[in-house]
């Protein structure tokens, strides 16, 4: 199987995870408490992706100031994207349609960052890309749940909710293919800088977006903390299991 087809298949996973999480909110019971815990678990998974997979790869190759610069650039990119979404809200706020599209833009950007991460990882190794893809599936399940729950609360019709949820797959696939094509023949230093950039973007998104939305949905409890830690532990075990299988292969 060619590299592009492998990237294509792996990049489908985050979007599918988001879609399946949306279906769970669409056809199953949902509550602010469940949303709070799901988003805490997703945040733990994202932090684990950064700490266990992305940063160790970069630390082994880059000098500290390059790592700091790449991480800061990713964090700044998130801030700029967030400001852009907020500016759109200020120009056209108050209607159900405008609020729905603001949510859509935010999630589309998040799925595109997933694709960027997978494409960057695939340019380094397929084992890393597979681990990142599975980790993002775990994180995107509760995010998809949150998106559909939000759409339902704003009165978006069911058919439109499902089509919007399915369309997120396009963003993860497009960003993954683009980043892979740009980075596959790039120097190793450039590839590692791309990983630190994604690490900065994901870290800020987990802390500001996921945890912020979790706190808005429901007040935190001890179970929320357990969910956060459980998400971190779960991804770490998945990562270790994949590395063991690949090493034995």
TrEMBL record:
Is Membrane a UniProt keyword of this protein? yes
Keywords for this protein? Membrane, Transmembrane, Transmembrane helix
Would you say which domain of life the source belongs to? Bacteria
Where exactly are the transmembrane stretches of this chain?
64-81, 101-118, 124-141, 162-183, 189-211, 223-246
The molecule here is called Peptidoglycan-binding protein
